[in-house]
Amino acid sequence: MSEHGSVEVVVENGVGSVIFFHPKSNSLPGPLLREIADTITGCGEDERIKVVVLKSAGERAFCAGASFSELVNLEDESQGKEFFMGFARVILAVKNCPKFVIARVQGKAIGGGVGVASAADYTLAHISASVKLSELALGLGPFVVGPACERKLGTSAFSILSIDNKWRDAEWAHRHGLYADVYPSHEDLDDAVNALAAQLAKTNPEAMAELKRVFWKGTDHWDTLLEERAEHSGRLALSQFTRDAIAAFASGKRD
Predict the structure, then answer these.
(1) How does pLDDT run across 84-138, given as a tens digit for each residue?
(2) Residue 42: CA count within 13 A, CB half-sphere
(3) Burial 44-57 (b: 16+ CB within 10 A, else e)
(4) What are the boundaries of each domain within the chain?
(5) CATH topology of domain 6-186
(6) How many helices (H) and strands (E) does the chain have?
(7) For residue 84, how far is the Cα from the chain centroid?
(8) Selection from 87, 77, 78, 80 nearest residue 32 by Cα
(9) Distance CA 196, CA 225 (A)
(10) 8 Å CB contact between 20 and 36
(11) How far is CA 93 from the centre of its chain?
(12) What is the model's pTM?
C-alpha cells in the first residue's frame, strides 16, 4: 500500500466495498478524504452497486481523524476551512448517497472517524472499537462531525463525548446507538457485515432509497451547515490559543 494512502473499490454481487488506508493509523489527509467522498458518490451512481460497505484496511484504528501534520501547518483561513471540509465531504457523500452505507469499524475511531461511523446508515464494530472526540483538548470542537454524531448518539451522549475527552469503549458506543452490534472477533464482524450486505443487495433499491430519505429527514441544510462549521473551525485553528494547544500536544506536554 502507498505511503500516501489509498482508496479502493471492490464490487461483488451488488455490494460495493470502499476500502481506505493510510499508514499513520488511518489518519487521513485532505486529498484522501476527497477521494473517499468522491468514491462514495460514485458508488451511489453505479447501477451495479445496491449497497455500500465502508471500511479501512488493517486491524487497528478504523480512523484516527484528519492528518495532524496538515493541521499543524495551516497558514490561513482558506486552508483552515479546506482542512475541515475533508470530513464534511465524506459525511455529506454518505448522506447524499441513495444507497445504504454500512460501516465496518474494526478498531478505534477518533474525531472525524467517529463522524464517519456516525454518518453511516448502519455501523457494526469490533469490541476494540473505542471512540473519542479529542477536538476540545486542541482548542477546537467537534463542530463538523457534530451533526452526524448528535443525530446518531443523541444530544446527551454527544455532549459527554465532546466535553470530557475520554475514551469510551465499544459497548458504550453500542448502548448509545452508534454501533448496531459489537463482535468479539474480526471474523465475526466480517461475517455480520457480509451477511447484512448480501441481504440488502437483494432488497428493492427503490424501497431502500425511500427509507434512507426517511432516516435523513431534516438534514437538507447540512451542505450549508457543515461548510459553515468548517469555516468556523478553520478560524479557531489559527487562533493563538489553539496554536499553543496544538504545539503542546505535539511536544507531548498534554495528554
Answers:
(1) 999 999 999 999 999 999 999 999 999 999 999 999 999 999 999 999 999 999 9
(2) 14
(3) beeeebbbbbbbbb
(4) 6-186
(5) 2-enoyl-CoA Hydratase; Chain A, domain 1 (3.90.226)
(6) 11, 8
(7) 13
(8) 87
(9) 32
(10) yes
(11) 11
(12) 0.95
